[in-house]
Amino acid sequence: xxxxxxxxxxxxxxxxxxxxxxxxxxxxxxxxxxxxxxxxxxxxxxxxxxxxxxxxxxxxxxxxxxxxxxxxxxxxxxxxxxxxxxxxxxxxxxxxxxxxxxxxxxxxxxxxxxxxxxxxxxxxxxxxxxxxxxxxxxxxxxxxxxxxxxxxxxxxxxxxxxxxxxxxxxxxxxxxxxxxxxxxxxxxxxxxxxxxxxxxxxxxxxxxxxxxxxxxxxxxxxxxxxxxxxxxxxxxxxxxxxxxxxxxxxxxxxxxxxxxxxxxxxxxxxxxxxxxxxxxxxxxxxxxxxxxxxxxxxxxxxxxxxxxxxxxxxxxxxxxxxxxxxxxxxxxxxxxxxxxxxxxxxxxxxxxxxxxxxxxxxxxxxxxxxxxxxxxxxxxxx
Length: 382
What we know:
Elements: E1 2-8, E2 11-16, E3 28-36, H1 39-45, E4 62-69, E5 81-84, E6 87-88, E7 116-117, E8 134-137, E9 145-146, H2 153-158, H3 162-172, E10 180-184, H4 188-199, E11 204-209, H5 212-221, E12 225-228, H6 235-241, E13 248-253, H7 263-271, H8 280-288, E14 289-297, H9 310-315, E15 319-322, H10 327-339, E16 351-354, H11 358-366, E17 375-378
Parallel strand pairs: 10-11, 10-13, 11-12, 13-14, 14-15, 16-17
Antiparallel strand pairs: 1-2, 3-4, 3-8, 3-17, 4-5, 5-9, 6-7
Helix pairs in contact: 3-4, 3-10, 6-8
């Protein structure tokens, strides 16, 4: 089969790999019909995630058609159209029993840090991802679900990560009626977080970014106020000024490890790998909210040290909530929101690349070229 293969930072190619096989009776093999490139994939592409091994196939957002199932699989059969959450989980451990699917204890040798994720280095289990013609799906009776007949394929693929993660970011903000919510980052997760904040009762939603085309999308897609942080000497001061000098009630960090805005932080993270991620957006979130507020963190960070202003968070009495999104727990409510038109995931798709041109897709997305917000990948398997 053809698959995207990692060859080092900023280096990838499409190569022939062995088609995955059933390794366990609970496995399924899925022929990928549509995948996506996630902002988190760029952390791998840029070499920021440890233990990203040569030959690994990325991609944790994908849908497809079941090609083969193991002998123990009961809920799926060949020919079924399925959407697959980015979390790999067993469904029966202590964490899964409590709906914490992203923290499953049985799918990752590094389980004390994180559960299993498709295509996201060996820190999350080393599973090959869906930027390929075929992918092995463990615990096939637990993770995937059939795509409803009424659902658009591009909505379905965005419901495997970006949409649930943005929605989960708003959930973790504990938004109450009338709250002022500040979302840092106008990428796909930030856009959905902003749109979801209205559903949870926000009275005001402000999105902060530095790319004008993404801020325009925040205005048209999420109906949010926007601030370009490059227009202000101190974006925290401006946010305080706009909130009666108290600060926002909720802040959502939808940026993560590669936040711009501070050259020193960027150099120590992106260039010298001395931190698990640039904490600029997270520190802005901590500084820009009022005392007693909630900060929700959906941006992805690596496992090593980051210079976060924890003392400020403690002394302000902030509540910090964060996790990898337990996707399947969000699906029942999200399906209804999408069906009723309250959430419109596919509107954030800007680019579609054939699998053979995936290196170009990563470059366009990474360099923020051509107004790219969310690129999809179309495999060529028959």
